[in-house]
Amino acid sequence: MKRIILLGSGLSATNLIQYLLNHAEEHDWHLAIGDLNTEVARRKVKGHPRGSVFQFDIFDDALLTSVVSGADVVISFLPASFHPRVAAACLDARVHMVTASYVSKEMMLMDEAVREAGIVFLNELGVDPGIDHMSAMRVIDEIRRRGGTMVSFKSSTGGLVAPAYDNNPWHYKFTWNPRNVVLAGQGVSQFIRNGLYKYIPYHKLFDRLLHTTLPGVGEFEIYPNRDSLKYRETYGLQGIPTMFRGTMRRPGFSEAWNVFVQLGLTDDTYTLENSQHMTYREFVNAYLRYDPEKPVEEKLCDYLGIDPDGEVMQKLRWLGIFDNRPIGRPNATPAQILQALLEEKWELEEGDKDMIVMQHEFIYELKGNLKRITSSMVVIGKDSEETAMSITVGTPVAIAVKLLLTGKISLTGVHTPVIPHLYNPILDELETFGITFTDEEEEYQAP
Amino acid sequence: MKRIILLGSGLSATNLIQYLLNHAEEHDWHLAIGDLNTEVARRKVKGHPRGSVFQFDIFDDALLTSVVSGADVVISFLPASFHPRVAAACLDARVHMVTASYVSKEMMLMDEAVREAGIVFLNELGVDPGIDHMSAMRVIDEIRRRGGTMVSFKSSTGGLVAPAYDNNPWHYKFTWNPRNVVLAGQGVSQFIRNGLYKYIPYHKLFDRLLHTTLPGVGEFEIYPNRDSLKYRETYGLQGIPTMFRGTMRRPGFSEAWNVFVQLGLTDDTYTLENSQHMTYREFVNAYLRYDPEKPVEEKLCDYLGIDPDGEVMQKLRWLGIFDNRPIGRPNATPAQILQALLEEKWELEEGDKDMIVMQHEFIYELKGNLKRITSSMVVIGKDSEETAMSITVGTPVAIAVKLLLTGKISLTGVHTPVIPHLYNPILDELETFGITFTDEEEEYQAP
């Protein structure tokens, strides 16, 4: 019997657990799930005879060592900062490891030792990073095979509420870690466009949008997603004139979100000494000029040049950000105060489904002609447990684990799924789960 | 003979050294100056029989111990981050210490041990912090003595070029650490106004200006200077409805500087991988939208809403920021690239003099009436060595050292000059050096 250890059983682990248990009998697997809180894991295992649950604390070194030593593969769905601890234990015990997270510097430094141990650490096997890499590299490799040269690559992903449940003026609900959404984009975003490097500071990010349409689900806007430059190396596209990665939101979201950025409400670096005794209205007012008479709304519109009767103000009013309702949180950062309000308003309601959208645009030259391939994916969640996020993060990880345990992966070292040996079997099987890309190819005229 | 050790002999130490040597014979002092580079110190000592110079490296622990052990007082003019090392050595050797810098957390934690050792560590004895504290506290204490209650305190300082040498469109030259000027204001600025907390993120800082006039030297604009709130405790003004600290520039400076902030050119957190092969024009273009045809100037004016024929563009053109001249610095941060250009253009020319301006506005209530005191200081440098910065930073430190060595300071522990025992004798003697405040008092009508 092969022993699979899963550490962490949170939101995105549902479909992973389901897949592994569904295939456990066939391949003679046992899945043991470790979590601080065993209740959620127990609910997801549903009494399956091939599954078990144990209490797990990443800070208990002896426990980690003993858990890992008996395993054939360890999957870490813990917060990404804990992966190196797990990786070190796996290396000691010569056990394969799989994660859905970015390869950290610490993980990368283990590459040689992992290779020498004859094992493999597979990473970036979720949706973003994960399905984005795999689907992009399959098309890029195919373009190369046909003799084409990539001249532009743009890739965007979004986690949103599914259209049928999209019933608020922001056209957005939290389908993923709210804190990451509030802090998204801080620092500088960088990409390259027609050979020119472009850098966008955070306070300008939500003002520098692209726009696109996805078949069947309508229009989206795209804001730049951090460092697009490093992906040139990941994808073997050194020297490509245009390389851009973005985050998708529904049209109008970014203009309204930008109000929070401009005011400074997404700052997480200091606390407000009086936050406990403030109302949301006073919170907004703390970021506006003093005026003995003008109401907060009028000052805000004057300050940022907002139409008092427009959609931005409609979105802000809907959130209740001008309400004289107490915040009730002591020593909170602006970002924490904003997040608490958003969590009330942007919560998925009973029965709501989420949606993951992804779109790549490849422009390449072939025999003197420019061509464009647009490749789009839409995944809608099944219910509040089997979310689109859980389906798209958990399924590729699960498939990779299966490939590993059935001897289909002949790799050692630290890897991501940018090679055909990994992306082909995973993408092929993902299609059976309805995770598919619709490709359109056309002649392209440079504008 | 009393032995004074001065560590660091940089820009602001000239007048300190001069004062101590001038009084050395009278009080039987010897001044020994330690610096990595002994040449500057030697030039400043000018062969004075009561002065000597030695090579000093703060990372040489044995040297630090031996230097401190023979001293009656140690003055640290090293970069502020090194003060705690010096302080620890002084504490061990039970030797007084004096600095012009803010009391760091590490220094504050030594307070009890310093008191128990029967010695005193005097800090914040320069101009800002230093003269600002002393001059403000003298007025505040006097208002209290007369039975008044402070309702508003605003205090601003600026280091600028003296009016007679103010010959560029920015009305600014570097008279102090250029790096600090380029990075000034990053983070959040906070103050309180009529009982309302106000927070300004960096990208809005140079858009939130006050204006003032100083007798004899004309008009200034003021932008908020970081955390004004903590000064309520420093000055014993807990509960004051309005507390604001600011930095003074000539009118028009901030609007043009804001262009750099808005573009992101003052960011020091990442490097441009292509900076070595870029021109300044390409550098600016990297922060603007891609456009196949529009020139950089036009894109900038469109992006930030700047008048193409206005004063802001005149200032930017004067700097050469649009020139196709190579930057020639590999892996530079945006802030480093900007600083290198500014250092060429904002350098003090031969014969130029600098200026320090400071202004406090005190509003207080006395027997039901509001009154306002405006207290202004202007100090002009004498030459390129005896700058206003050196005069105002070095002289109060020197006076404090004299008071200490002549037994006029009966304190132990870590202190700043917010108490009459310190500020009265120092301010009185500063007047003999022309460092004086002009006070105006008037009835005040709340607007």
What does this structure look like?
2 copies of one chain form a homodimer. Chain A is an alpha/beta fold and 447 residues long. The first copy, chain A, has 18 helices and 16 strands. The first copy, chain A, has a 7-stranded parallel beta sheet, with helices on both faces. In chain A, strand 10 and strand 11 form a beta hairpin. In chain A, helix 1 packs parallel to helix 17. The longest helix of chain A is centred in the last third of the chain and has 18 residues. The interface between A and B is medium-sized, with 33 and 33 residues.
Secondary-structure topology with pairs:
The structure is a homodimer of 447-residue chains.
Chain A: E1 2-7, H1 14-22, H2 24-27, E2 29-35, H3 38-45, E3 51-55, H4 61-69, E4 73-76, H5 83-93, E5 96-99, H6 105-109, H7 111-116, E6 120-122, H8 131-145, E7 149-161, H9 178-183, E8 188-193, E9 196-201, H10 202-205, E10 210-214, E11 218-224, H11 231-234, E12 242-249, H12 253-263, H13 280-285, H14 296-304, H15 311-319, H16 334-345, E13 354-366, E14 369-380, H17 388-405, E15 413-415, H18 420-431, E16 438-443
Parallel strand pairs in A: 1-2, 1-4, 2-3, 4-5, 5-6, 6-15, 7-12
Antiparallel strand pairs in A: 7-13, 8-9, 10-11, 11-12, 13-14, 14-16
